[in-house]
Amino acid sequence: MSRLFYRKLKDRLALAAIVLLAFLPAFPLFHILYGILKQGLSVLSWEFLTHLPKPPGEPGGGVGNAILGTLMLAVMASGMAVPVGVLCGVYLSEYARGKFGEVVRVAADVLQGVPSIVLGIVAYLWVVKPMGHFSAFSGAVALAVMMLPVIVRSTEEILKMIPETLREASLALGVNYWRTVLKVLIPTGMVGITTGILLSLARIMGETAPLLFTAFGNPFWNLNPLQPVEALPLTVFKYAISPYEEWILQAWGASVVLTLMVLGLNLISRFLAWRLGGR
Amino acid sequence: MMSRNPDRIFYGLCLAVALGLVFLVLGIGFTLLSGSWLSLKKFGLAFIWHRVWDPVSEEFGALPFIVGTVVTSLVALLITIPFALSSGIFLAEYAPARMAGPLAALIELLAGIPSVIYGLWALFYLVPLVRWVEMKFGAPPFGLGLPTASLVLAIMILPYAASITREVLKMVPPEIKEAAYGLGATKWEVIRGVCIPYSLSGIVAGLLLSLGRALGETMAVTMVIGNRSEVPTSFWDLANTMASVIANEFTEASKDLHLSALVEIGLLLFLITLLVNTLARIIIAKLQVK
Questions:
Q1: Per-residue model confidence as pLDDT tens digits over A215-259
Q2: Which of A183, B5, B194, B259 makes a 20 to 30 Å CA pair with B159?
Q3: Domain B36-289 has CATH 1.10.3720.10
Q4: What is the pTM assigned to this prediction?
Q5: Fold of domain A66-278
Q6: Measured between CB atoms, does B125 come within 8 Å of chain A?
Q7: Is the ipTM of this complex over 0.85?
């Protein structure tokens, strides 16, 4: 009797401990959101979103160039990573048999694990050093390499989920394999592939480390891919460690914008994945 | 030719891209190796355990940063483990399905907050807290340094570790859990006696993957570790990690040897994370065979 009592007591105590330990970390995590919103929302204004930064000491100024730069880097990185990543995913799902497919998968896994700062070094040695100066392009190269493994693996998995009968139906109608891939498989898996792309975008848009010595930062408007460009995470970093009160406040403001962009992308991709799962 | 065999051309294109991916990875390794050649030639293997890092006299050793990276990452992992396991167990076993899904999604969203923002938060909320603790303990009240960096790393890898733990626990087949319940086991006894042993290797692999993340994490650590390039002698010290020294000095390195030494630190970081991640993947691969 008492033994049963102890076992039940232990069960309850374990539950209490688990609930306590599980919910304790929610505090810092939500405190981060609270901090961003509390400090950052007061800074947000039309001027903040559309204007160039002002020198320290002068009130006002914004992060318009950083927002534009972040979007530009995202577009350039996607332009490089999406076609390569999707084709590589097609290879893994449709053609890879035996050892070489495994080698490619391992390569994607290795790439996934490379610290982002190391990719920054590589992009520096590949692009910045030969060119002689920092550029948006070199930053986009580093980010594209970060996007690749996510796109490759998600494309592969989505295409593998498509029933074999669909491929057979298309081939039986006399359609070539490559047309089957481009006109049947990829459109069918479009939602899933897009989800993967958006997730990889969310992964890179907040990245700072690979941009420190590639995109470098630029206090002016710039749309030239061969010139340095500002990016929101760089702004947050630079302003956060600066000694100026108003810059630090603007770092919080830039964080709000960046968080909204990243969480927005995450939410959209989650919504797409949920719709995909629902059908 | 073109019209007769477009299938082969498409296959060739896909194969070329896949080959490209493999060469990309090899190229990254090769670039790091050739970029650190100057430093490798000058310092040899002693680079790894040499204690001095002095850009002015061009004497470079990686030990301060290796110690910084290993200490912060391991402490962060130790702090995270009880919380991550509890969160994972709660989500997989206790939380009603209706609640578990959204909660897990929320955790993953928090994992997506950029690292630099964790750093900003740590700089203004965690640093005063650590300073307060340091004053209580009579340590020098920097607020920055190893303890702050470890804490922020712990917070950052927690969502990741928790969601992997949950995934692994969900893979436990319900039959064996029901068998244990059928024998009269309590829920805790089922978790401890069945679920955890069954998924132990998966949980370990997940923790290793989290460790791999912590090792390479740059921005948040750079902002709070204090940037002192000496081997730390106490846990309250200011320090530098491999990633943070690269972030701090790479753009300022005007001498070739300094740059090369930084690239070599990048190479070492690449190899360490590769080792940890590979270990995790081997465990996972064995899991899937089972």
A1: 999 999 999 999 999 999 999 999 999 999 889 999 999 999 999
A2: B194
A3: yes
A4: 0.94
A5: MetI-like fold (1.10.3720)
A6: yes
A7: yes
